[in-house]
Structures are given as C-alpha cells and as structure tokens.
Amino acid sequence: MVGCGGTRLEASSNGATIESETVWNDTAEGLGATGGGVSDVFSLPEYQANANVPPPQNPNGGCGVPDVSGDADPDTGYNVLIDGSSEVIGVTSAVAPLYAGLFARINEALLAQDLPRVGFVNPKLYQFPVAFHDITMGNNGAFQVGPGWDAATGLGSPIGTSLLADLSTPSSSTPPPS
Length: 178
Description:
The chain has helices at residues 92-112, 122-127, 160-167; strands at 4-11, 18-23, 37-43, 62-65, 68-71, 78-82, 85-89, 132-133, 157-158. It is of the alpha+beta class.
C-alpha cells in the first residue's frame, strides 16, 4: 500500500507546463488540505529508516505518511466525465488512482522488457527519491514541507519516466515468483 498525499499545481498561462507545485492546503477557505503525519500504531518500516521521519507520540508507532503525493487540489485536479458532464475533481482520493495508473503503465513497460512487475513497491520508491518532484513550499496545517521526505507530501510527486527508468534497473527488480 502506497500512502498518497496532495499537492496544488501552478501552471503556465497556456496550461502546458507546471510552474510550481506546493502542498495542497485550502483550510483558510474551509475547503480542506492533504493529511500526513506519523503513525502511533504502525512502526517505522525499514525502508523509511533514512527518511528523517519525525518521532511518533507513541513509542510503538513511527511509520511516516504519505509515501508520495500528486495533484489533489480540486481547483487544479483531474478532468473527469460524470454522467456526461465534465468536472474537475481533486482531494487525495484522486491521487491514489493516479498512482494505480502510473504503476500499471510501469508494469506494462517492465513486462515488455521481460522484467518482473514492481510488486511491493514502497522500499523501491525510497531508493529513488530523485524520481520525484520534491515539494518544498507550504504546509498541511500540521507539518511544514522541506527537502526530502516530509509528513505532508512524502517523497513528492512522480516523474514517471524517471521512476520507470529507476525501476527498470536490475538492482530494483524483484525476481519473478517460482
């Protein structure tokens, strides 16, 4: 399971390029924000050992969330067609299908190269932080973002081609089941 946080995009005037990406936080307008933090229940997984996850409130906890993020702001989110009507939607629940689609396309590309699918991808994501746009501006109301993993945007938003290239390296591949 990959925990997904939310960002907000600022696009160029023609909408073709992303000018900046910040934490999604519209709480001042009463509209919501991305979550995140440190679990008081689930312990810190080994793959987050070097991620600088803040200490938990409960000594049994420690797992940092989210792992990654993507555009979740309802103003800059995803164009969808619902009952024949076009709408833009957001929230972090929209980020999860973004990653599901991305991993489906990555798995398809890996299989075309006779490489195994990504499988449990979390440890691999933390091996390749440069495959993500590091979000360094804003906060979610509880946590300020900064360089590297943070408790509002995780590793950041995906650079799909870089993530595919990194997951295609032999050291990141998991042997196929026997």
